[in-house]
Amino acid sequence: MLMNTKEILTQAQQGKYAVAAFNVYNLETAQAAIQVSEREGTSVIIALGERYFPTVDVEGFSAMVKAMAEKVKVPVALHLDHAYEKESIIRAIRAGFTSVMYDGSKYDLEQNIRFTKEIVEIAHMAGVSVEAEIGSVARGAFSDEEEGDGTLTDPQSAKAFVAETNVDFLAAAIGTVHGMYKGEPKIDLALLERIREAVGIPLVLHGGSGTPENVLKKAIELGICKVNVNTEVSMAAVSYLEKYAKEKQTAHLSTIMAEMQQAMEPVMTKFVRLLSKK
C-alpha cells in the first residue's frame, strides 16, 4: 500500500528502527525492493534521483510503482531523491510522489533556508513531505552521485534550519559517503547524538552502502530513521552482468533482467533486516 513517507518515518522514529530507501532506476530494481520488503514484512521507500529524469519517464515510473504498491500489504513510499530544481520537484509532486528531497546544501545556511522553505510550502499544500540536507556528503567509489564537499552538519544550524523551514525529515552529514569508502570510514556518531538533541524530526543517513553494520545499528539508536542505499545494490547487479557475459555464449534479455533482479535481492534483504532490527 502506498503511504506518505512522513508517516512511515514517524512510525520508525517511535519504534526506534529505520527504513531502507533504495535508489531505483527501472522495473527490476523497483520490483526487487518491493518484493523483498513484502517478504520481510517491512516498510520500504522507493527513491528516484533527479539525475535519472533524462532517462526515466517520471510519470510512467510513478504509475508503475504505485500499481506495485497497491498489490502488497507493507507500506511503500515513493521519494524524489536529491533534487536541485524546483521544476523537478513540482513534476514529482504532480506525478504522485509521497515525498521529495530538496538539496540546497551547496548554498549558505540563509539561502538554503529560504529555498527549502519555499519547497516545503509548495509540497505541503499537496500533502507531500519534504527532506532537506544540512552539510554535504562526499562521493566515494563506484558512485554516480553528485560530488559533495563532505562538510559535516552543525547541530545548531540544523536546529535553526528545521525551525525556519518546517521540513519533515533531515539528512545529517556525519562522515558517510555516497558510494563505497576509499579508506577507513570516519563516522562521527557523537555529532549525530548532538544533532538528535537539537532537532526532533526523523533523521536520514545518506551513504548506507559500505557503512559497517555496528555503525548503522548505533546510528539507528541515535535517531536515524531512514537509510539510503544505492551502490551496494548496483554493484551486485553489475557483478552478475559481468559474470554472465564471461560464462554465457548466448543470452536473452528477459533472462538476464530476471536473474539480475535475483542478484540484487540478497543485498536488499541484508539491509532491510539490519535496519528493521529483525
Automatic annotation (TrEMBL):
It holds the Pfam family F_bP_aldolase. Its cofactor is Zn(2+). CDD domains: TBP_aldolase_IIB (cd00947). This is Ketose-bisphosphate aldolase. It comes from Ectobacillus funiculus.
